Amino acid sequence: MKRYLEIALGVLTAIGGFMEIGEIVATSLIGARFGLTLAWVVPVAVVGIILFAEMSGRVAAVSRRPVFDVVRERMGPSLGLFNLIAAFVITMATAAAEIGGVALALQLATSVHPMLWVPLVGFLVWLVIWLVSFKWMENATALLGLLLLVTVVALWKLSPGWGELGRDALSPSIPSGEGPATYWYFAVALLGAAFMPYEVFFFSSGAVEEGWSPRDVVVEKANAVIGFAVGGVLAFTFMALAAIVFEPRGVEVEHLSQVALPTTLALGKIGLAIIIIGFVGATFGAALETSLSCGYMVAQYFGWQWGKFVRPVQGARFHLVVLLTVAGSIVLMLVAGDAVKLTEYVIVLSAIALPLTYFPVLIVANDRGYMGEKANFGLINAIGTVYFILLVVASVAGLVLMIVTKAGS
Amino acid sequence: MRWRPLGPLFLLVLVFSCSLSPGDFDSYRRRGEETAEEVIGAARMAQLMLDVAGDRAFRAYVETGLQEAEADASAAVRSFAALRPPDASARVFRGELLELLEPLTREIAEARSAVASSEIGAVDAQLDRLRQTSGELERFIRR
């Protein structure tokens, strides 16, 4: 019974954890501009993130060491340092965008300017990391993030032409008025939004925080497969709502208030209240995860004591990195000024850096020296390799398309 | 040492590319049409916000949405107005377009006052004005 509860809770956490500011913004922006013609990217991205999250969780459960620890050992200090710098910069920028996302959600409830919320939200992020246990922190925010499922009810209530919606989703094409370069740029952005590098570091470090062992591999697989798959449904729902409400009117999505509008049109004040709480839960949870991930990767690279499973005095350097990350994220958000714009850049930069994060995971998960009988078997290895090639192509294309399309404008 | 002369050259290219304006009437007109589309999009967003104002959404939410629509429209108009028209016909086009863009931006801004007044009649009247002004702009860019 306890095991089923663990699976259920883990799945809920993964669903809530999948939706963060990047996914929310990317799916809505793309739905409003391209309708459902880019919906095919969602299942492609979901299968990929399931594959790599499962691999990184398995590596942590079997070796009892998180991914970055093994990355440094396998890749050596120089390449490992390069990997660390790239992942740290992107994850800190993601943390800034998530803090900005919480501030934007609070603005919707209070009309107080989001930049006034940013320092307070940042402080709360640090306070929760300092005071609250890992399990409570992860589960509470993920369960709040689950309130975003209200969008599924909103989609049903708006009762779109389901047949037409299905046809659009199943027949990818470039809409009139858009060029192939912008179409592919946003395809890469959507992929990047699902494959944020911090997800792998957090998933594997979380496995160590929660003391997973090889017998937990089944729970870990269920969490990744069911949780991310349902998260993908949620991503599709956001895209469909934007496609129904905004695309026919020629309105582009540039603000979080717009993302909440279809649900408000369908369900009124109750729907609006639920989705705002969902935004706060999802983005606050992701702000915690990204800030912790920065601490994890730096501490694991330098071999310091890390984690919330030890007392802060034992992991002082880890907590210092987390504190500096939160402080840096607050400053970055205040300087950037616009969380949605920052998010748009972060997800494309994530896509560009993807091979750096995912290559070591694939290598280690294949290594029988580390993994023994839990190493990747043939089919998983083949799919993982195909995905890695896809990530390399997306990485190169993302950089080129970003310049050619002036970041999709 | 050899690279030193490239510094001023780089600056020159940067300044030149930043001050570039649309070279001919067609590209200037295209920029104008894009600006009009952006402002019409913001007006439609404001209409949607007015639709839910009152009993379907919290005032803080509607005010935020309208404020953002107003900021988007103003930014688009400002950036078009800053472009130098390349010839006489572009100057005429600019005058005509700004005459339609500015009132629509004002109507979006006034939508906030209508919501703040909490009168359903004021919100409905503002919705009508927004539709009318935005229709005029649409007709202008489609002619």
Computed CA radius of gyration of chain B, to the nearest angstrom = 20 Å
Query: Which protein chains are joined by the largest interface, and how many residues does each one contribute?
Result: A-B, 23 and 23 residues
> What class, by secondary structure content of chain A?
mainly alpha
* Tally of helical segments of chain B: 5
Task: Round the Cα radius of gyration of chain A to an integer and report it.
Answer: 20 Å
The major β-sheet of chain A equals: none
Oligomer: heterodimer
Largest sheet of chain B: none
Structure summary, number of beta strands of chain A: 0
Provide the structure class of chain B.
Answer: mainly alpha
Shape of chain B: elongated
Instruction: Name the overall outline of chain A.
Output: globular
Number of helical regions of chain A: 16
Q: Report the mean per-residue pLDDT of chain B as an integer.
A: 85
- Helix content percent band of chain A: over 70%
Question: What percent of residues of chain B are in strands?
Answer: under 5%
Tell me the span between the first and last alpha carbons of chain A. 52 Å
* DSSP E strands of chain B, number: 0
How far apart the termini of chain B lie comes to 58 Å
Look at the structure and give the mean pLDDT of chain A.
Answer: 88
- Uncertain regions spanning at least 5 consecutive residues of chain A: none
